[in-house]
Amino acid sequence: MAKAVLIRGDGTGPELTAALKQVFEAVSPPVELIECEAGSEWWMKHGGDSMIPPETWEAIKSSDACFKSPTTTPPDPKAPRSVAVSIRQEMDLYANIRPIKTFKGAESPLSQVFGAFDFVCVREATEGLYSGIEYRLTDDVSIAVRKITSRGSERVARWAFKIALEKGWNKVIVITKRNILRVTDGVFWNAVEKVAKEFAGIEYEEYYIDNMAQQLIKNPDRFNQTVLLSTNLFMDVLSEAAAGLVGNIGMVYAANIGDRYAMFEPAHGSTPKYKGMNRVNPTATILAGAWMLKYLGLKKHGEAIEKATEQVIAEKKHVTVDLGGNAKTSEMAAEIARKAAEIFS
pTM to 2 decimals? Predict the structure, then answer.
């Protein structure tokens, strides 16, 4: 039986974890779920040089996959690095993958103008400005190192082209600022060109980050059925902006995948101001959990949850406030669980 860690997180994380467990119980996947703590709330109580306790690390390293509920990352320079960044780097989860998809019943104003959106953002997740290499040179001067390697760039580029191939799409959009960051983005671009030779029939095109930000607003439909690929910070920002095309960040979920392990998560933060209010949209959490089941080889279980989630959103009867309804987090999860059980049986 597969083992999966469930990190409860903080802010609204624990109630979202409860919603996911409710849905999992409806389809009874053969997975041992190990609930663990991590995040700023744990760190503020216990201190230390990590927001992840030793027992959680032990569970992660003896499991097959991990689900991370939202965790808070304080801007305090004395605080440890974020839970997500720590796990990505320690477990070498170099490909962050975020599908951007319009759900029937949750169309955004832009999707009503341009039609449904369907593309995937692929982000290098272990290097770049998130490498954590920062120095204060004087009281007035500090620097951050943007680390870009050929190896790191090639392997994430290969994921982008592989996703395009699997989906039957024929284009990868590569986002850089190569006219200014000539050395680091030059390494990234050269790696893309090398990998592209392995995927005949899939085109690739370069956009500079500033123009890409404009085009996501001005002509977002031009990116349908493409894979967007970039470095760590650039794609972190762009994928958040892309979430606005499909309503809100509560609809966007992610996988962080390496060669031997994966972590799944909703793309949004912990929204501590809503903690304990049972009102946060559980869509991204539930779909990230479904993706984890599929990664673990439980395709039928994962697909049942996906279909149930889409049906509940389309019906608009048991959805949260941001989706036009008045259901609580737990009520929306309960309806998804009920439908998932029916579909799976």
Answer: 0.95
